[in-house]
């Protein structure tokens, strides 16, 4: 019978990774905290401190999820960066991170045209929302592949 330690070691040996996440956060303390949470949750995490740095990373690598701070270096920079990410061929899931200091979540949700707000105040909820976004992306990719296969047959 395999022990828990043995199974963790075996998973580490296989390079088990849940998903690759790009975290774009201008605040150093928040960036390090969120990066640590995501890594502890099993995700591979790349970080960027600005929209320009994030765009460079989006051009270099493919991500399953792009999370960005709602308060970047200029008004609208986070949303423009997410629009850029959505235009990539690999179609990552995207979301804005809402932290406690950002104000009223209900007002933010009313203003948001799509369900893309992730709250970082509760660790369990945060990691659940991240997993849900990545799962939804995988489902959409599978459906798109099936539709394309059916259309070609």
Explain what you see.
This protein has one domain: Response regulator (Rossmann fold, 3-Layer(aba) Sandwich), CATH 3.40.50.2300. It has helices spanning 4-13, 28-40, 51-60, 77-86, 105-111, 123-152; strands at 20-24, 44-48, 65-69, 93-98, 117-119. Helix 5 (105-111) links the parallel strand 4 (93-98) and strand 5 (117-119). It is α/β, with parallel strands linked by helices. Mean pLDDT is 79; it is low at 1-8 and 108-115. The protein has a 5-stranded parallel sheet, sandwiched between helices. The protein is globular and about 50 Å long. The chain is built from 6 helices and 5 strands, in the order αβαβαβαβαβα.
Distinctive features:
153 residues, alpha/beta, Rossmann fold, 5-stranded parallel β-sheet, 6 helices, 5 strands, 16% strand, disordered N terminus
Write the layout of secondary structure elements.
Layout: H1 4-13, E1 20-24, H2 28-40, E2 44-48, H3 51-60, E3 65-69, H4 77-86, E4 93-98, H5 105-111, E5 117-119, H6 123-152
Parallel strand pairs: 1-2, 1-3, 3-4, 4-5
Helix pairs in contact: 3-4
Summarize the entry for a quick read:
This protein is α/β, with parallel strands linked by helices. 52% of the residues lie in helices and 16% in strands. A 5-stranded parallel beta sheet has the order 2-1-3-4-5, with helices on both faces.
Strand arrangement in the largest pleated sheet: 2-1-3-4-5
Give the CA-CA distance, first to last residue. 47 Å
CATH class type: Alpha Beta
Could you say which structural class the secondary elements and strand pairing correspond to?
alpha/beta
What order do the SSEs take from the amino end to the carboxyl end, as H and E? HEHEHEHEHEH
Which strand-content bin applies to the residues?
15-25%
Counted by DSSP, the helix tally is 6
- Kindly report the CATH topology: Rossmann fold
């Amino acid at each position: 019978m395999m022990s828990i330690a043995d199974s963790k070691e075996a998973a580490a040996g296989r390079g088990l990774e849940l998903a690759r996440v790009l975290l774009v956060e201008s605040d150093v303390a928040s960036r390090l905290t969120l990066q640590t949470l995501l890594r502890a949750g099993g995700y591979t995490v790349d970080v960027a401190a600005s929209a320009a740095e994030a765009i460079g990373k989006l051009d270099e690598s493919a991500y399953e999820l792009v999370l960005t701070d709602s308060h970047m270096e200029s008004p609208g920079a986070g949303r423009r960066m997410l629009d850029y990410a959505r235009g990539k061929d690999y179609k990552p899931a995207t979301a804005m991170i809402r932290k406690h200091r950002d104000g009223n979540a209900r007002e933010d949700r009313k203003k948001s045209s799509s369900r893309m707000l992730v709250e970082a105040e509760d660790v369990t909820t945060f990691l659940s929302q991240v997993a849900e976004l990545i799962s939804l992306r995988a489902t959409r990719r599978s459906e798109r592949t099936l539709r394309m296969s059916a259309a070609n047959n």
